[in-house]
Amino acid sequence: MNRIQDNFLWGGAVSAHQCEGAYCTGGKGLSIADVTTAGSKDCPRRITDGIVKGEYYPNHEGIDFYHRFREDIGLLAEMGFKCFRMSIAWTRIFPRGDEREPNEEGIKFYDQVFTELKRHNIEPIVTLSHFETPYCLVKEYGGWKNRKLISFFERYAETVFNRYKDKVKYWQTFNEINHCKADSKLGMWLAGALEIKEGDDREQICAQAVHNMFVASAKAVICGKRINPEFKIGCMVGYIPYYPATCNPCDVMAVMKREEEDYFFTDVMVKGKYPYYKEQAYKKKGIQIQTEPEDGSLLRQGTVDYIGFSYYMSNVYSDNIEHIKVSAGGIIRTMENPYLKSTKWGWAIDPLGLRISLNRLYDRYGIPLMIVENGFGAYDKFSEDGIIHDDDRIAYLKAHIEAMKQAITEDGVEVLGYTPWGCIDLVSASTGEMEKRYGFIYVDKDNRGKGDLHREKKKSFYWYQKVIKSNGEIL
Question: Is residue 305 part of a domain?
Answer without folding.
Answer: yes
